[in-house]
C-alpha cells in the first residue's frame, strides 16, 4: 500500500489511480466460448466511463437504487462501478433467487433500474412487473432470446455503451459533477444479508468503509496488482463484492471470471489464482471429488495416495509453516509432493495459490487440516456483511483450525458479558436500509456493533474463537452445552454427508437430520451395483443408513473426548428425503441452514426423533425449478446411534 492511498477513499478515485499506475496491466479477464478475453485498466476504465454516461443519458439519477443481477462477468462488475460513478447505488441480487426473494428486495429498496445478465433475469423481473411499480428500465448484457421482446423498457448493454460514447459535453460535465460530489461517506453499495434468522436486511456500506477495509485486508496478506483473483462466488454475496470489487480495485489486481459453473474447475486450473476465497461448502465439495477419484483409481494409486496422505497429515502442516521437520520425513514429503501433492494441487487449480481463505461458515478442523497438509496455505477469517467482511484474519505463522485470527488494522474487538462478540471497525455499516430499529439494536451510540456470534479470545493464541451463533448456542436438559454448528461441521467432513442439522436445545439428547451427498453416495451405489432412480430412493436405502450411522458414531466417539461437547452426541438421526434447498427457504443462498425454519417445517420429523418410532410417513411442500409448488411424500427411517461415555481415550461404548 502506498502512502498516497490514504486519500483514495472513493471508487472513482481508485479507478483513476489504477489507470494512472497500472494502465496497461490486465484488470479483467473472462472466458467466453472457450477463449479468454482480457481488458487492461485503461480499457476497463473507458468501458466504465462510457457506461456511466450512458446510464445518465438513460435517466438514472443520483441516489437511485439500481439492481445488478447475473453471473460473474466483467460487464456486470463495470456496471457496479459505473453506477457508483454517477452517484447512484448498486444493489446486487442472487441470480438464482426465486420470484418471492427478488420481489422482496426490489420493492424494499425501490429499485428504479436493473442491469441483468440474460433473458432469464429479464423474464423474472417482467413477471413481477405489476409489483415493481417503481422500476423503469432494464439493461441486459446477453441478447440471446430477447429479439422479439418489447424493447420499450429494455435496452441492450451495447446500446447504453454506444449512447455514452456519443454523448456530448453536457453529459460529460454532469458525470464529472456527480463524481466530485462523492465522498468517503457516500453510499457505495446496498448489500442484503443472507436472511438466516428472518427477512434479509439491506446493509448500507460507504465508499470509505469498503475501501478502508479492503486496504487493511490487502495489507495483511500483501495483495498487489500482480495478484490474480478468481471471481466465481455469487455477486450478491458480500464476500464476492469485497474481493472482486473492494480488494481487486484497492490492489489493482486482475479479476478473472470463469465461463460458468460447469467449467469452474477447468477455468480455475487455467487461471491459477494467487489469492482464493472459498466457503466451507466449496472446500467440502472439492474434497468429495478427490475422494471419488481415489476410489475409482487403480489399487496401486490408492495405496500410494493413502500412504503419502497419512504422512502429509503428520508433517505437512509443519513443513508449510516452516517448523523443524526431520530429514527423512522431509524427504518422504518431497517425494510425495512430486507424485501426489503437486499433481493433486494442479488438478484442483491451487498450484499458484499464495494464500487461500475459508469464510462464511465454520469449517471442520479435519477438512481444514487436509488442505494445509497438502501445502495449500488455507487460513481462516471472520467477518460479516455489516463489517465489509473482514474483522479477523490469521497470519501465516499463526494458523489454527479452531480459531479465526486476530483483528486486522482498523478493527477493535471485545466480548460482551453474554459472550457475544462486539466490534468497532472502519468497515462498520452505516445503517440497515429503512430499518432504524434493527440498526439501533445492532450498533450502539458509541459505534460498537453486535455480531450475533458467541465467542471468546483464546488465551494461548490470542486469537478469536467462534462457538456458534449466539441464538443457536443453548443447553441440554441436563445443563450440558448445546453448540450445533460444531457438531454439524464434524459430520460434514465425511464426503457422504452434504448437510447436517442438529437439534437438542432444552431436550434430553441431541438428534439430527442428514442430507446425503448425491455425487459421493451415488458413486458408491454405482460401484456396489445398487440401482436408484432419485435422491429420495437413494437416501432411503438401508445400506446408506448403515454407512451414515458409522459416520455419526465416529463423531460421537470424538465428542466423548471433549468435556464441554460430550453432551452433544447424537442419539438418533434420519436421512431427509430431500435436499435442503434455498428455493424452499430451508437454507440461504450461501448455504447457511435456517435452523428455526427447518425445525418448524419438519416438526413431525423432529418429534419422531424424540419418540420410540423407527419410521414416519411425511408430506413436504417443494418448489420446482420453474417456480411451481408441489408435494413430496415419503416414509423416513430413523436410526439409533451409540452414545459414548466421557473419556480421554477411545474406550468402551456405553
Helix run count: 21
User: What summary fits the major beta sheet?
Assistant: 5 strands, parallel
What's the gyration radius in Å?
Answer: 25 Å
Broad shape: globular
CATH topology-level name of the largest domain: Rossmann fold
Overall CATH architecture of the largest domain = 3-Layer(aba) Sandwich
Describe the overall structure.
This protein has 654 residues and is an alpha/beta fold. The chain folds into three domains: 3-206, 3-Layer(aba) Sandwich (Rossmann fold), CATH 3.40.50; 278-351 and 353-467, ANL, N-terminal domain (Rossmann fold, 3-Layer(aba) Sandwich); 474-640, ANL, C-terminal domain (GMP Synthetase, Chain A, domain 3). 39% of the residues lie in helices and 22% in strands. It contains 21 helices and 28 strands. The relative contact order is 0.08. Strand 27 and strand 28 form a beta hairpin. The termini are far apart. Residues 1-6 and 649-654 have low confidence and may be disordered.
Write the layout of secondary structure elements.
Blueprint: H1 11-22, E1 26-32, E2 35-40, H2 41-58, E3 65-69, H3 74-85, E4 89-93, H4 99-108, E5 113-116, H5 119-127, E6 137-140, E7 154-156, H6 157-166, H7 169-181, E8 187-192, E9 202-206, H8 207-221, E10 228-230, H9 238-251, E11 254-257, H10 264-271, E12 275-278, H11 280-296, H12 299-320, H13 327-348, E13 355-358, H14 365-373, E14 378-382, E15 392-393, E16 406-407, E17 411-415, E18 420-425, E19 431-432, H15 436-442, E20 449-457, E21 464-469, E22 474-475, E23 481-482, H16 484-492, E24 497-503, E25 510-516, H17 518-527, H18 535-539, H19 542-559, E26 570-575, H20 595-601, H21 603-609, E27 615-623, E28 629-640
Parallel strand pairs: 1-11, 3-4, 3-5, 5-6, 6-7, 10-11, 12-13, 13-14, 25-26
Antiparallel strand pairs: 1-2, 8-9, 9-19, 14-15, 15-16, 17-18, 18-20, 20-21, 22-23, 24-25, 26-28, 27-28
Helix pairs in contact: 2-3, 2-6, 2-7, 8-9, 12-13, 12-14
Amino acid at each position: 500500500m502506498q502512502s498516497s492511498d490514504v486519500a483514495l477513499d472513493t471508487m472513482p478515485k481508485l479507478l483513476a489511480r489504477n489507470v494512472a499506475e497500472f494502465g496497461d496491466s490486465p484488470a479483467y479477464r473472462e472466458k467466453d466460448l472457450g477463449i479468454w478475453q482480457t481488458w487492461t485498466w485503461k480499457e476497463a476504465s473507458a468501458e466504465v466511463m462510457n457506461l456511466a454516461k450512458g446510464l445518465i443519458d438513460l435517466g438514472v439519477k443520483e441516489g437511485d437504487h439500481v439492481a445488478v443481477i447475473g453471473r460473474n462477468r466483467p460487464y456486470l462488475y463495470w456496471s457496479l462501478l459505473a453506477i457508483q460513478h454517477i452517484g447512484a447505488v448498486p444493489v446486487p441480487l442472487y441470480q438464482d433467487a426465486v420470484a418471492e426473494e427478488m420481489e422482496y428486495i426490489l420493492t424494499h429498496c425501490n429499485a428504479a433500474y436493473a442491469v441483468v445478465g440474460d433473458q432469464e433475469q429479464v423474464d423474472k423481473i417482467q413477471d413481477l412487473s405489476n409489483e415493481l411499480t417503481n422500476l423503469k428500465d432494464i439493461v441486459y448484457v446477453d441478447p440471446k432470446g430477447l429479439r422479439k421482446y418489447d424493447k420499450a423498457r429494455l435496452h441492450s448493454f451495447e446500446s447504453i455503451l454506444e449512447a455514452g460514447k456519443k454523448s456530448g459535453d453536457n453529459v460529460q460535465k454532469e458525470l464529472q459533477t456527480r463524481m466530485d460530489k462523492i465522498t468517503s461517506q457516500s453510499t457505495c453499495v446496498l448489500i442484503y444479508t443472507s436472511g438466516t434468522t428472518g427477512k434479509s436486511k439491506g446493509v448500507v456500506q460507504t465508499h470509505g468503509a469498503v475501501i478502508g477495509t479492503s486496504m487493511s485486508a490487502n495489507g495483511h496478506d500483501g495483495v498487489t496488482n500482480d495478484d490474480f483473483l478468481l471471481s466465481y462466488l455469487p455477486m450478491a454475496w458480500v464476500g464476492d463484492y469485497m474481493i472482486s470489487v473492494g480488494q481487486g480495485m484497492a490492489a489493482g489486481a486482475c479479476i478473472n471470471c470463469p465461463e460458468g459453473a460447469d467449467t469452474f474447475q477447468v477455468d480455475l486450473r487455467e487461471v491459477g489464482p494467487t489469492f482464493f476465497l472459498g466457503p466451507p461448502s466449496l472446500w467440502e465439495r472439492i474434497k468429495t471429488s478427490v475422494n471419488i477419484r481415489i476410489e475409482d483409481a487403480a489399487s496401486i494409486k490408492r495405496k500410494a495416495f493413502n500412504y503419502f496422505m497419512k504422512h502429509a497429515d503428520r508433517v505437512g502442516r509443519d513443513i508449510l509453516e516452516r517448523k523443524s521437520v526431520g530429514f527423512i520425513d522431509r524427504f518422504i514429503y518431497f517425494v510425495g509432493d512430486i507424485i501426489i501433492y503437486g499433481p493433486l494441487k494442479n488438478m484442483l487449480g491451487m498450484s499458484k495459490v499464495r494464500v487461500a481463505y475459508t469464510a462464511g461458515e465454520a469449517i471442520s478442523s479435519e477438512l481444514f487440516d487436509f488442505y494445509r497438509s497438502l501445502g495449500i496455505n488455507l487460513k481462516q477469517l471472520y467477518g460479516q456483511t455489516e463489517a465489509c467482511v473482514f474483522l479477523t484474519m490469521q497470519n501465516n505463522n499463526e494458523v489454527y483450525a479452531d480459531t479465526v485470527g486476530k483483528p486486522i488494522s482498523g478493527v477493535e474487538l471485545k466480548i460482551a458479558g453474554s459472550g457475544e462478540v462486539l466490534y468497532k471497525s472502519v468497515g462498520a455499516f452505516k445503517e440497515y436500509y429503512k430499518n432504524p430499529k434493527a440498526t439501533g439494536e445492532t450498533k450502539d451510540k458509541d459505534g460498537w456493533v453486535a455480531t450475533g456470534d458467541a465467542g471468546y479470545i483464546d488465551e494461548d493464541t490470542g486469537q478469536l474463537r467462534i462457538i456458534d451463533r449466539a441464538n443457536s448456542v443453548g443447553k441440554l436438559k441436563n445443563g450440558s452445552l448445546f453448540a450445533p454448528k460444531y457438531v454439524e461441521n464434524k459430520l460434514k467432513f465425511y464426503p457422504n454427508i452434504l448437510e447436517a442439522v442438529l437439534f437438542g436445545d432444552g431436550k434430553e439428547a441431541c438428534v439430527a437430520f442428514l442430507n446425503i451427498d448425491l455425487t459421493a453416495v451415488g458413486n458408491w451405489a454405482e460401484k456396489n451395483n445398487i440401482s436408484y432412480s432419485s435422491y429420495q430412493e437413494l437416501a432411503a436405502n438401508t445400506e446408506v443408513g448403515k454407512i451414515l450411522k458409522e459416520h455419526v458414531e465416529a463423531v460421537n466417539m470424538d465428542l466423548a473426548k471433549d468435556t464441554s461437547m460430550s453432551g452433544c452426541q447424537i442419539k438418533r438421526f434420519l436421512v431427509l428425503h430431500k435436499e435442503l434447498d434455498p428455493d424452499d427457504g430451508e437454507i440461504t443462498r450461501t448455504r447457511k441452514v435456517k435452523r428455526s425454519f427447518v425445525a418448524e417445517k419438519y416438526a413431525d420429523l423432529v418429534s419422531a426423533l424424540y419418540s420410540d418410532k423407527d419410521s414416519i410417513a411425511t408430506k413436504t411442500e417443494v418448489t420446482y425449478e420453474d417456480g411451481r409448488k408441489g408435494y413430496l411424500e415419503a416414509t423416513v427411517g430413523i436410526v439409533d446411534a451409540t452414545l459414548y461415555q466421557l473419556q480421554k481415550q477411545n474406550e468402551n461404548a456405553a
